[in-house]
Amino acid sequence: MPLRSGFVSILGRPNAGKSTLVNALVGEKVAIVTRKPQTTRNRIHGVLEVDAVKGKHPAAQIVFVDTPGVHKPANQLDKRMLQEVYGALESRDVVLHVVDVTRRLRLPATKVTDIDLDKASGPTVEPAAETTPPPQHKSAEHSLENEDTFILELVKKLDCPVFLVLNKIDAIDEKEALLPLIAQFSALHKYAEVVPVSARGGDGLERLIAKLVEYMPEGQRHFRKGQFTDQPERFLAAEIIREKILNLTGEEVPYASAVVIERFEERKATKAQPGKPKPKPLTRIAAAIFCERSGQKAILIGRGGAMLKQIGIAARKELEHFLGMQVHLELFVKVADDWRGSDVFLDSLDWRNQLESLGKDQQSKTEDED
Ligand SMILES: Nc1nc2c(ncn2[C@@H]2O[C@H](COP(=O)(O)OP(=O)(O)OP(=O)(O)O)[C@@H](O)[C@H]2O)c(=O)[nH]1
Ligand SMILES: [Mg+2]
Question: Among 74, 194, 294, 352, whose CB has the most other CB atoms within 10 angstroms?
């Protein structure tokens, strides 16, 4: 049977569990996950190869496109994050609208004409403290009211099948609690499928994959077999460092932080010299952590460098696991005033732009050598 192949874009509010879902579906960590909203800043591809199951479905390659959580932009960075969402919605075969079932659907009354929110919403479960901490970022605080409406408006404009994916079902006791939520969303849009899942626990994922294969068009692979993301190791390394910053710092600091890899050099395992131990493969990484204020820099460094050390240790451990080799990690903290409002800085931060300029540097180096 011919291969099915297509793009599945993931859409939802911040913290809905989109990145957790992509990682679980792909079976690899392609996107960082934290308890803080607005963790993901770029769209990231995660690739899943599905084997054919006789009598059930053919083989497929599904490219999931993780996106930043939809929220009201408060600065240029937020605007770009929204652009990433729009970009992901342009070329896709299916869209997954991911909803955190532990949160109540919030829609301004004026927008809801045909359902009675109070009656339709039924019992709601309070947000689990671990998954939905109070928003720590100003823009997150301001945006909560309209995010669902905004996403529904985006969904309505799409001309492809949209699945409603109800995530975090492990966090609710009674599955019946989902029914009013399903009724509420179904009254607002005709979803092609409704699939309850636990991205964290794995429930429902097999069913979701089997359903997605049904909707994938026949076609060639978009990625070679074995490649599970479009994001080079160098940039995933920057994300892993940012994940540790998000986990270890509070208030504005995680949101005002950006990580740029300045050096990423791999030393392959070489033959042992007589009488000496065989040198292990090693990656040397130097990364700059940018923040916006000297006060934030002081927090990132910590007393006597304690915070930076903690970030470094946590990042190095994970990088060693991820790269499968020893890692030497150097971190620097730099201040770039109001970088979240600077288009020039944001251009330089974009990993696709960085990749392009790295390619150019490499090319001119080779020409110089010739
Ligand atoms: N209980 C439970 N928690 C989950 C599940 N999926 C995700 N989470 C948690 O929800 C939080 C947010 O997860 P992410 O995957 O980062 O959410 P996101 O939608 O990518 O968030 P942004 O990148 O900020 O838009 C994390 O603490 C996850 O561990 C789930 O199925 N069950
Ligand atoms: Mg995310």
Answer: 74
| Tens-level pLDDT at each residue, the chain (370 residues) | 899 999 999 999 999 999 999 999 999 999 999 999 999 999 999 999 999 988 888 999 999 999 999 998 999 999 999 999 999 999 899 999 999 999 876 655 434 333 232 333 332 333 333 333 333 333 333 333 478 889 999 999 999 999 999 999 999 988 888 998 999 899 999 999 999 999 999 999 999 999 999 999 999 999 999 999 999 999 999 999 999 999 999 999 999 999 999 999 988 777 778 888 777 789 999 999 999 999 999 999 999 999 999 999 999 999 999 999 999 999 999 999 999 999 999 999 988 888 888 877 767 766 666 6
Residue of the CA atom closest to atom 26 of ligand 1: 35
The residues that bridge with 231 in the sheet, in sequence order, are none
Strand order in the sheet with 162-167: 44-50, 60-66, 4-12, 94-100, 162-167, 193-196
Environment of ion ligand 2 (residues, CB < 5 A):
18-19, 39-40
Q: Which CATH superfamily is domain 4-215 in?
A: P-loop containing nucleotide triphosphate hydrolases (3.40.50.300)
Q: Is 231 exposed, middle or buried (0-12, 13-18, 19+ CB in 10 A)?
A: buried
Domain with CATH 3.40.50.300 in the chain: 4-215
Class of the CATH-defined domain 233-369: alpha beta
